[in-house]
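Incident log, support desk, overnight shift.

02:14 A customer reports that sequence design results differ from what the structure should imply. Their input is reproduced verbatim below. On-call engineer (initials T.W.) acknowledged and began investigating.
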């Protein structure tokens, strides 16, 4: 375990168990035998083999009479010493945490970087990313048409008939007007385009050695994916020279199966999970409505669907304005976690591990990228003979799609699956399952993405030879590396490329009958 201690005055001692600052000890962060590695004017670094007894580390310690730091073997008697024990960054137990509802809105929040498991997005030591592919959801829109028609529009009509009389936290509803443009529901918002360019800048910075190779990206015929792609490409110095290839969902081929699988599958429907979601909404929405009843007009009561509409408006208004909506403050942390759970439940049934179709719809993209990376290794044509042909020198690939597709891929990989025996979370409709792994806030905000990196890493020769190089892959979800459950033996919990190819082959053997399960006919 390596700890860093900042000092302004220091004394280099022989291996000893304390850091001296001037004539007295004002701070201690390391205890037990220390191996000195470096001392600079900025600080001192040490390795701590183990943590010893911390008894009596209180108060202040001054150097005992006769103490000689250069005397070998001289130690410190803990029974006679006391110290001021302080953490490296003194904070309260929460480390400054504040709840943010925008981090708990699956599918409708402005983009944010996910934390994941804490692994760094930087390439591991000794590794270089030699190719990468990203599947990116479109930028923020004014509202999803189904959610608008089912929840938001009925609430807005009800609100217009009951203006005035709102008080307390709901007082702003007396004068509030909806920012949602009904005539352009699924158009990308101006702030959405700004965010798309920011994501582009992030990935250009992340892959400066690959960004110049981009000559083509892929979108579909929907305006929101094309507009997202164009805004994203503004981050590239040569954006005017980059082509946007558009796939038509009406054409069934390997390209649409990979990038638009839900639109290429006749058997796919968005209905699964709706019944369960409404059942759970009745539970928490009723409780929320009861809590807010004192602040509504006498002739106005929030129904559970009204609660759901207001929570959805929080996300969409924030995405439209590029700033957090005041409506977000209507609800408690627990109510936001219930909203998040309601959508996670819906997505688990519709595009996740509770839908038997999901892996069938996720593996085509993984298979196509595995073949693409293999072709790069072999110097072969990239996508030759397929609907998506890539320039021979391109090494960074982007596909712009819809919110359903990243969860299909995540399900096929198992990167958001439960660690339970069945590999699936349970979604009771009576209460929130807080320990679930399936949390789509971390995957499908607007501009949410799944990235697949191919890394070439130096491998040391255990016999003292020159060593060699080996290829690995790892997956990134909104900048957070996500180890594969079946393979994480490489640097940074990555997976050897050959092993990954085997996983994909096995997946295609099991889930490769796309047209059969989709009942696409002849």
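02:41 Re-run completed on a clean worker. Output:
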């Amino acid at each position: 375990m390596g700890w860093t201690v900042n000092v302004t005055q220091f004394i280099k001692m022989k291996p000893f168990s304390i850091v001296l600052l001037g004539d007295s000890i004002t701070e201690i962060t390391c205890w037990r035998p220390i191996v000195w590695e470096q001392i600079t004017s900025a600080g001192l670094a040490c390795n701590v083999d183990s943590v010893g007894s911390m008894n009596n580390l209180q108060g202040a310690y001054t150097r005992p009479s006769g103490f000689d730091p250069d005397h070998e073997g001289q130690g410190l008697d803990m029974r006679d010493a006391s110290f001021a024990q302080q953490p490296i960054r003194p904070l309260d137990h929460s480390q400054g945490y504040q709840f943010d509802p925008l981090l708990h809105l699956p599918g409708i929040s402005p983009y944010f970087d996910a934390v994941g498991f804490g692994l760094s997005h930087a390439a591991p030591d000794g590794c270089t990313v030699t190719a990468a592919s990203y599947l990116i959801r479109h930028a923020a829109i004014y509202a999803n048409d189904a959610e608008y028609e089912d929840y938001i529009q009925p609430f807005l009509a009800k609100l217009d008939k009951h203006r005035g009389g709102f008080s307390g936290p709901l007082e702003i509803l007396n004068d509030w007007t909806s920012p949602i443009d009904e005539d352009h529901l699924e158009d990308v918002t101006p702030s959405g385009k700004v965010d798309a360019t920011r994501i582009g800048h992030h990935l250009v910075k992340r892959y400066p050695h690959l960004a110049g190779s981009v000559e083509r990206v892929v979108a579909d015929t929907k305006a929101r994916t094309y507009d997202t792609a164009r805004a994203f490409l503004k981050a590239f110095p040569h954006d005017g020279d980059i082509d946007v290839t558009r796939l038509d969902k009406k054409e069934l081929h390997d390209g649409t199966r990979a990038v638009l699988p839900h639109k290429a599958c006749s058997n796919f429907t968005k209905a699964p999970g709706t019944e369960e979601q409404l059942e759970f909404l009745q539970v928490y929405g009723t409780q929320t409505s009861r809590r807010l009843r004192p602040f509504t007009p006498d002739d106005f009561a929030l129904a559970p669907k009204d609660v759901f509409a207001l929570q959805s408006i929080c996300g969409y208004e924030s995405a439209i304005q590029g700033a957090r909506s005041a409506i977000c403050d209507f609800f408690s942390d627990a109510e936001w976690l219930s909203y998040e759970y309601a959508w996670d439940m819906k997505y688990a049934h519709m595009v996740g591990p509770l839908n038997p179709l999901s892996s069938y719809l996720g593996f085509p993209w993984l298979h196509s990228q595995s073949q693409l990376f293999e072709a790069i290794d072999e110097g072969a044509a990239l996508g030759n003979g397929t609907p998506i042909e890539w320039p021979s020198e391109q090494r960074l690939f982007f596909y712009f799609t819809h919110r359903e597709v990243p969860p299909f891929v995540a399900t096929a990989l198992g990167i958001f699956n439960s660690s339970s025996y069945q590999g699936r979370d349970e979604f009771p409709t009576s209460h929130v399952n807080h320990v679930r792994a399936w949390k789509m806030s971390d995957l499908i905000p607007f501009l949410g993405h799944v990235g697949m990196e191919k890394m070439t890493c130096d491998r040391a020769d255990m016999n003292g030879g020159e060593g060699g190089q080996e290829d690995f892959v790892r997956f990134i979800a909104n900048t957070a590396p996500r180890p594969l459950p079946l393979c994480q033996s490489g640097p940074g919990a990555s997976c050897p490329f050959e092993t990954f190819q085997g996983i994909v082959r096995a997946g295609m053997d099991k889930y490769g009958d796309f047209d059969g399960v989709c009942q696409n006919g002849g």
